[in-house]
Amino acid sequence: MFKKKTIQLKTYDPASQKPVLKCSICNGEQVAGFKNLQTGKIEEIMFVRDKKDLQDFIDTYQIREPIEKIY
Question: What does pTM read for this prediction?
């Protein structure tokens, strides 16, 4: 009756994308994603509530570089 959902993760291309943390100055919400270096468009991946969520994002995509915060 209930099937386990499989999550398909998008790949991260360091040559054309860079990891960013989009932060709201109004309410403190944070969204992790990738910024396209060509267009500047941000692809939002996940909502970050605490340090564990951010660490999960880093581990999932094996990010080695520092994550830039964008306000």
Answer: 0.79
